[in-house]
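Give me structure tokens for this 253-residue protein.
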Amino acid sequence: MEEARALLAAADRVCVLTGAGVSAESGVPTFRGEDGLWKSYRAEDLATPQAFRRDPRMVWEWYDWRRGKIRGCAPNPGHHALAELALGSRSVRIVTQNVDGLHEAAAREVAGAGDPSPALPLEVHGSIFRVKCTSCTYRIPHRDPVRWESREVLPKCPVCGALLRPDVVWFGESLDPRILSEAFESAREADLCLVAGTSGLVHPAASIPLATLGGGGSLVEINPTHTPLTTMATLSLRGASGELLPRLVKGFD
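Here you go.
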């Protein structure tokens, strides 16, 4: 931990990459694997453009259920620690694979009446609490429950009348190239990449820390278990991010 704190102290520019493990400590379900079954469907069967075209009512029912589960979760000490770090004087960019909005919530809580924007994350996989049009460029935050009883009551675009969908990256879709480019640029310019709660298996996001290493920076991993990034990391801290992140960033601004 002291070695990791020394690396953080020496870094003028920091890129942070977070994954599902950070939000799991807030009680956010993963919705993957056996625990992710919903009415005998897997996430991989529902989170696709094909599923939405085939049965948008069912997909929205599932997302409304998911949003209800996540809506009851709150940022944990790990989220707050990263928000405090990003709202300090140094250059910190938070990049997240999570779609739950908890980094944004933590940023607003820590900033209070101040500006939360330095701690707002780049959401490479989108946000479950935004919607976008399936036809035009309309996109807006959306946290309210969704009516899904019939196709007629599904949310529709106020601009063109087409169906709205969750603003998340589905299986088979490409990540937003602008967001991905910004994430990799931040990593390349960073003196330190801090990776917390990610398996290091989902690409291209899992390659973001490698850009920091390629630029001569350091990589600090926080994870309870070994990951594909462990052998490349400058340091690996074993444990829960909600416990280790506050210790790591305490006293930094």
